[in-house]
Specification:
This protein is mostly helical. It has 10 helices and 4 strands, in the order βαβββααααααααα. The strands form 2 sheets. The protein has a two-stranded antiparallel ribbon.
Length: 257
């Protein structure tokens, strides 16, 4: 059953890069971007607590269990691939499944999405807590409504056309012009009055940005550990073993391109 520490690069793959020194257990070299390289056990690298799922307390199969079971077949495929001779063409379907699986299960898949959502959240936070930036973001520095605020006014008119016409706004253009002028005139006061609500919404957005990448990643994995839309185009390619050249470096985390 799944435990707390869950590998996003399986240990059976990492062990192929392990080096043994004397009688000590074999270890892999790790090359972080922000510190010097070091050696460690495969159990301590390329893993995070509960990366895929919480451990089951009732015996129910977890996502991490499903991945572990699925990778028994993947391990056999990699074993076959590593035994192939140089310049030998490989089974397209077999390689396609391996590459598709490692691509979608990678931590990078989730981390890139998180960085994008976090960036959006940060931009929203710095924009809508600063009156001057918010003024510009809404396009209020222009003479006429445009972009997002124009679409909002037009939608508002369409939804309340009868009521607005009864109040004298017989054309959408007239309503948009009035609403834009009113918004500009009252923006500073409304910005101050709604500041606390805006800050609450931005906090929720930041929380949302932190949760969505993980939930989306797990949902995608739950729908398929080697998705057919990824496997099919990969299976159309030719895959061949190439001889390792001197002075080149292969890292265990570069497992899918």
């Amino acid at each position: 059953m799944s435990g707390d520490k869950q590998h996003f690069i399986p240990q059976f793959l990492l062990r192929n890069f392990a080096v043994r020194k004397g009688n000590k257990p074999a270890k892999v070299f790790v090359y972080p971007k922000d510190r010097v390289a070091f050696r460690t056990s495969t159990s301590n690298i390329a893993a995070e607590r509960h990366f895929y799922s919480q451990p089951s307390n009732d015996g129910k199969i977890t996502l991490d269990d499903e991945i572990t079971k699925f990778e028994n077949r993947i391990a056999e495929a990699i074993n076959t691939i590593t035994k192939a001779s140089a310049d030998e063409y490989l089974d397209r379907n077999q390689v396609a499944e391996v590459v598709a699986h490692f691509t979608i299960r990678q931590a990078t898949f989730r981390h890139i999405a998180f960085q994008a959502f976090d960036k959006i959240s940060g931009i929203a936070d710095t924009t809508f807590t600063d009156e001057r930036k918010a003024w510009t973001a809404f396009g209020l520095h222009h003479d006429r409504a445009s972009g997002m605020i124009l679409e909002g006014f037009e939608k508002l008119y369409d939804e309340h056309r009868v009521s607005l016409q009864n109040k004298g706004f017989f054309s959408k253009e007239a309503f948009v012009e009035f609403a834009f002028a009113w918004t500009k005139e009252n923006f500073s006061r409304n910005f101050s009055n709604t500041r606390s609500q805006t800050e609450t919404l931005l906090k929720e957005l930041k929380k949302f940005a932190a949760e969505v990448p993980r939930k989306s990643h797990l949902k995608a994995l739950g729908q398929g550990l080697a998705p057919t839309p990824r496997v099919e185009p990969l299976a159309k390619m030719n895959w061949v073993i190439q001889t390792f050249k001197e002075n080149q470096l292969i890292l265990p985390d570069c497992i899918a391109v």
